[in-house]
């Protein structure tokens, strides 16, 4: 497709009178790649990734499933409304018990299924099943362990008046506040890595033997990155964490394949996709920073359309996160 576009453009230069051909070339450059078919609304698509890892698409944010002899680990749980279908999809992959859920962030499209899905699991036992004294005696073993960065728990349990933001059954019960948390599960190291980006509590999950990384909102093919300023997110933090993600992903031949990447939303990706996304975010950051240095106001920056090259792919005019909201959040973040 690119070769045809280049040939058409060259023909425009060589035969300046061929207006029809030039118009075709310009139109093909303006149109983004054909839309990929996905699951119908309310349905879940199950795709193998590689190694022990599958992905569920269609339940809100993408859900990563790692399954093996020890049980099942999920990265995120999607929306509450899709919980039953998520459980059915997971059961079609493995009949082993659900042991762990990792929340990459606190937003409801990632954690809405926590309460119902975690309740179907069993933690990895510390003692024999009939042991009643000591640590295991004080734990609810009939629930999967929910892991997150500490600030995710704070936000999900924060009260507004007398009511917490989320019911207690949805809260993480195994938090970390260091640079990473490590497990050895289903025959491979699992690294849960703190990557401040959209908020100050983002995590990514690296399955080291399967060579798969699940990124949550840090890398999202469906839209410009969400920047939650109230939750400690920033434009610069997103660029920094995308650079760290690039260091983790290792390409195979011709810079494709190798480490596979499961984004917060969108198709299975690789190193080259992350590099393209990082470049997009960094270019827009640099443009807005330059405009700020020139003393331009927020309205002037919006009018200058710093995202224009990427609007066809990532831009949205309606919905919970629009291009206008992204530019405003980036401007306020970079103005600090």
Quick structural gist:
The protein has 336 residues and is an alpha/beta fold. The chain is built from 11 helices and 14 strands. Helices cover 34% and strands 19% of the residues.
Number of helices: 11
Strand content: 15-25%
Q: Considering the protein shown, what is the CATH homologous superfamily of the domain at 45-274? A: Ribonuclease Z/Hydroxyacylglutathione hydrolase-like
Question: Mean of residue pLDDT?
Answer: 89
Oligomer: single chain
Low-confidence stretches: 1-30
Radius of gyration: 22 Å
The largest sheet, given as strand count, sense and whether it forms a barrel, is: 7 strands, mixed
CATH class of the domain at 45-274: Alpha Beta
Query: How helical, in percent, are the residues?
Result: 25-40%
CATH-level-2 architecture of the domain at 45-274: 4-Layer Sandwich
Q: Explain this structure to me?
A:
There is one protein chain. The protein has 336 residues and is α/β, with parallel strands linked by helices. It has a domain of 230 residues: Ribonuclease Z/Hydroxyacylglutathione hydrolase-like (Metallo-beta-lactamase, Chain A, 4-Layer Sandwich), CATH 3.60.15.10. Helix content is 34%, strand content 19%. The protein contains 11 helices and 14 strands. The strands form 3 sheets. It has a 7-stranded mixed beta sheet. Strands 10-11-12-13-14 form a 5-stranded mixed beta sheet, with no helix packed on it. Strands 7-8 form a two-stranded antiparallel ribbon. The N terminus is likely disordered.
């Amino acid at each position: 497709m690119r070769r045809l576009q280049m040939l058409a453009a060259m023909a425009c230069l060589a035969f300046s009178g061929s207006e029809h051909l030039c118009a075709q070339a310009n139109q093909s450059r303006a149109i983004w790649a054909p839309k990929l078919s996905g699951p119908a609304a309310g349905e879940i698509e199950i795709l193998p990734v590689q190694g022990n890892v599958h992905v569920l698409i269609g339940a809100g944010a993408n859900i990563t499933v790692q399954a093996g002899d020890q049980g099942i680990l999920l990265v995120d749980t999607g929306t509450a409304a899709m919980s039953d279908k998520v459980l059915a999809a997971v059961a079609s992959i493995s009949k082993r018990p659900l042991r762990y859920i990792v929340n990459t962030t606190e937003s409801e499209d990632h954690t809405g299924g926590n309460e119902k899905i975690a309740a179907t699991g069993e933690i990895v036992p510390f003692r024999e099943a009939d042991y009643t004294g000591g640590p295991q005696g004080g734990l609810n073993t009939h629930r999967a362990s929910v892991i997150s960065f500490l600030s995710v728990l704070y936000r999900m349990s924060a009260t507004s008046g007398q009511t917490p933001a989320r019911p207690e059954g949805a809260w993480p019960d195994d938090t970390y506040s260091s640079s990473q948390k490590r497990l050895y599960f289903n025959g491979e190291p699992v690294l849960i890595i703190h990557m401040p980006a959209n908020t100050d509590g983002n995590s990514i999950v690296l399955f080291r033997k399967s060579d798969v990384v699940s990124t949550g909102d840090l890398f999202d093919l469906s839209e410009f990155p969400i920047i939650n300023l109230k939750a400690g997110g920033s434009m610069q933090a997103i660029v920094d964490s995308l650079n760290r993600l690039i260091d983790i992903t290792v390409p195979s031949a011709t810079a494709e394949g190798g480490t596979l990447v499961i984004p917060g939303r969108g198709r299975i990706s690789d190193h080259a996709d992350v590099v393209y996304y990082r470049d997009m975010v960094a270019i827009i950051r640099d443009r807005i920073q330059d405009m700020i240095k020139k003393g331009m106001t927020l309205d002037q920056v919006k009018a200058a359309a710093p995202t224009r090259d990427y609007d066809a792919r990532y831009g949205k005019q309606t919905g919970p996160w629009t291009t206008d909201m992204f530019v405003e959040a980036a401007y306020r973040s970079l103005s600090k």
